[in-house]
Amino acid sequence: MPLSDTAAPSGRRRLNTRGLVPLLMILIVGVLVLAPLLRILLATLTPSGLEAWSAILASPMSLNLWWRPLMNTLILGLGVSAGCLLLGGFTAWLVVMTDVPGRRILGVMHTLPFMIPSFAAALAWGTLFRNSRMGGSSGFFEANGFIIPDWLAWGIVPVLIVLIAHYYSLAFTIIAAALSSVGADLVEAAQMTGARRPRIFFGIVLPVVTPALVSAASLTLAGAVANFAAPALLGLPVRMQTLSTRLFGMIEIGQAERGFVLALLLIAVSGVFLFLSDRLVSGRRAFVTVTGKGGRTRRFTLGKWRWPLFVAGFGLAIVTTVVPVVVLIASSLAPQSGALFSNWTLHFWIGEGGGQIAQGTAGIFRNPVLIEALFNTLKLGLVVALISMVLGLALAHTITRNKGTVLANILSQLAFLPLLIPSIAFAAAYIALFGAPFGPLPSLYGTFTLLVIAAAAHNLPYAVQAGRSVLGQIATDLEESARLTGAGPLRRMWAIIFPLAIRGLLAGAILVFVKMVRDLSLVVLLFSATSPVLSMVAYRYAAEGFMQFANAITVLILVICLAASLIAQALQARVQKWKE
Amino acid sequence: MASVQTEAKDAIRISNLVKRFGDFTAIPDLSLSVPPGSFLVLVGPSGCGKSTLLRMLAGLDEPTRGEIAFMGKTVSSGAGGVVADPRERNAGLVFQSYALWPHMTVAGNIGWPLKVANWDNAAREARIDEVLKMLGISALRDRYPAEISGGQQQRVAIARTLAPKPAILLFDEPLSNLDAKLRIEMRSELMRIHRATGATSVYVTHDQVEAMTMATHVAVMNQGRVEQFGPPRALLERPATTFVATFLGTPPGNLLPATRQGDMLFHAGVPLAPAALAQGRDAVQLFYRAEQITMGRAPDRPVLLAEFSEAAPMAGRVMVTAAAGALRLSAIVDHFPDTRPGDPIEFALSGAPDAVFATTGERIE
Fold it and tell me: Is the ipTM of this complex over 0.85?
């Protein structure tokens, strides 16, 4: 029978190419994501690991090792989440739903705080508010005669404020997107019933954006729970521990198993909330807005509240973006933190060592460690961005081509797993897996390679998302129409796919690059003396009380991130001239 | 605010309505009134101001000047700054996009306006069941909008608008998102509902067939003005302007520019009609309906030369379209012509022109 003759080989070929690629991908992602997690779990099941479990959860030490850090972590998580919902919700409402003046500029400004790393905000807070209790120079306010109480200088209150200032713009972005999807028709349909404004707001607008509110709350909560920089800089000096600082401390003093246990517990805490929020908005309640024509939104008139609310929204944006940056820049130029805007000197940037200032420490550009760290940081950012994008594109392609199969589902679930894992716990898992020789690999602990692998794995969700959007932009009929003209695969790749994909690829790569350059919580565990990076050097300077140096490096990081974004925009304008 | 006394017999009276958006004048000056129970259709091309007018009737936009009165009561007044609360208006609007609230079930969507109007629980539930039954969607009671089809969403949107028993029903192109078959079905459904409720309705559409079949009164709108207002048949039989003449009717009528030479009016060198029709003008436009044109020569009839473009079957006959220079001519004939696109054909005109229009568009005969 001719039918079976032709069917059999094609079936086998299917199995070979179509089955093999996803399997290979699953293997790669499995080693990158799943293996470290399994390894860290197994490491805590050894005799010494079990001992660590009992030491942390059921021993006289567990109050300090687990319960107090847990309390602090939960207070931070819930507090930050509530604060972000309030501020993010308010600003999103203001920008999207009202006729407040300068809406567009406000909208841009409220997305910025999330671009500024949280340790920059924490350092700026310290520069302004630190008091002399911890020794070292006092902050701007105290030096100018204000009495700064301990609770405002150190501990949970400043950490809460700094994290809210950082994460509220994430909530703003999510809620604003949801609010602008509430079509004018929905509001007008409610107006037609005779409902008054508050009733429309609570009866229609609020319920429609509830899924967005829940996801904003859970994402900011997860972020705050996992954050390392702010509690480390503002909490550790007064021994306020969170799970992430405890975990860091344990691994730093060589108590690896206890660190691993804390990492698992941190993953569990963060996972519980993400799971709960997912349950809350899934199922039938996960309604999609049935959108009307256009994206028309109905704006409420604020009347006499227009300008007061504008001042509130604008003030918030200034306090969370401009003020920290200005404080950091001024502090890196001012010899005394009490006089931020006088006697400016470039000493902390390029000054020679041995003078009166800063105990004779040379400026950051004279410090060979810093120069090395600068190159390391750029190298790390570029290499990770490149690897992530290649991997992300390959994964996205495999997932879309095998859509609907079990393998594709497993692959996409695996690739998004790192999103749920706090980066410091992820780093701990990498130490567990690669800290000792693993298979044919030597111990990678403290090497640049380990940092790159871990970072690439942790950025996988973003990379796959970018890859998906890139592939989504290239409808198959675009490629097919090129095929009909007789162009070969290489030519099609070069003339059609590449120009269409480059925008998304660049955007994804820049995102990963910026995330890496300003990352602290992943590198803090994986960094080593042989491969310093900028954020780590800044953290060390700050921990030793050299605030100006730390601030100068942070300014440098901000400049690099800003430059990367600008370059990306310029490049996109060059390569895709037909846009605009 | 002293409300202007209007005759109580008008369900809707619009007087000297003006609407400007910044420098742009959407509606220059519009007056219109319809008696209770009528079905007013606002028809016109997109951008003609019909949706703007409807939104002002709904109270969603305020008129710049002029007044709108429902049942003799002023509900919107541009000069006086009066915009009545939707509750006082007693009007309901069906949105083009349906605007169903995605977080409420079908029953929730229908019940919410009643809740706002403070209906008690039992009355509300009874009314929900009643309108669900009226629209034949009782089975969908507990579904969410995202879980039902477009046609069903349409019915829910209508049910929601009907539930509070408004005296005036407003429809904003409600059928434009439905497929052709469903559209015809919903058209009869809406007419049935209109008969059953007796509510005065205003219906916006760009589809002249919808306008002609549903309306008791049609207002043909163009550039913010009412070109002609009246019962559908009157509009079809005596179009007041060239815009109305060419906008209404399937297939569209033919408008031939003609100039006076001696005692005849000539189009493309062919004498068509006596010059007396032009009433002293040198140039006019002669209106011939498609059924006044036949294919091929006929004795004693003016013949136009054209280039065949297409033929489409229509209710047992054939609509033939041809191009004569920049003009498109349509004829209704009995048999499919044996021609290919581009072939020359001859159109014979029968009878006097159905109407004569001035070059500026208004009817003179």
Answer: no
